[in-house]
């Protein structure tokens, strides 16, 4: 059974940090590009960050550059998103996505809520 399970979300004050994890099971992430998306209430889902299969290439949305860091551990079949200097606008449900290069869709996690508020 293929699964992506996100964890690490929660409530944090502005300026704080959170670390998200996405653990995969039922398949091996080493052949997949891994992505983090987020969706805020009333807004479309947006791509936050992605990392190549080997972890040597990363890309970020302009809104999170310099604050968020995506990483992966293929041996642990897990991808991470470290979020620093959080802002209220970062409040959203964060989703993990695994997709093979050249394909669309892929596998999705159920999401984890991140709320940035004082």
The residue ranges in which pLDDT falls below 50 over 5 or more consecutive positions are none
User: What is the residue-averaged pLDDT?
Assistant: 97
What global shape is seen?
A: globular
Order of helices and strands: EEEEEEEEEEE
Oligomer: single chain
Binned, the helix content reads under 10%
Cα Rg: 13 Å
Give the structural class: mainly beta
Number of helices: 0
**How much of the residues is beta strand, in percent?**
over 45%
Q: Describe the largest sheet.
A: 7 strands, mixed
DSSP, total strands: 11
> What's the N-to-C terminus distance?
39 Å
Describe this structure in words.
The protein is built from no helices and 11 strands. The chain is mostly beta strands. The strands form 2 sheets. Strands 2, 4, 5, 6, 9, 10 and 11 form a 7-stranded mixed beta sheet that branches. A hairpin with a 4-residue loop joins strand 7 and strand 8. It is globular. The mean pLDDT is 97.
Features:
single chain, 118 residues, mainly beta, 7-stranded mixed β-sheet, 4-stranded antiparallel β-sheet, 11 strands, globular
Task: Lay out the secondary structure.
Layout: E1 3-7, E2 10-12, E3 18-25, E4 33-39, E5 46-51, E6 58-60, E7 68-73, E8 78-83, E9 92-99, E10 107-108, E11 112-116
């Amino acid at each position: 059974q293929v699964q992506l399970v996100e964890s690490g979300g929660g409530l944090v004050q502005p300026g704080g940090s959170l670390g998200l994890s996405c653990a995969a099971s039922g398949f091996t992430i080493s052949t997949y590009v891994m992505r983090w998306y987020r969706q805020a209430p009333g807004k479309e889902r947006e791509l936050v960050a992605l990392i190549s299969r080997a972890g040597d290439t990363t890309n970020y949305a302009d809104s999170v550059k310099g604050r968020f860091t995506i990483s992966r551990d293929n041996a642990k079949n897990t991808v991470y998103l470290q979020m620093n200097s959080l802002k209220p606008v970062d409040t959203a449900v964060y989703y993990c996505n695994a997709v093979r290069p050249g394909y669309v869709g892929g596998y999705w996690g159920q999401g984890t809520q991140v709320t940035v508020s004082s």
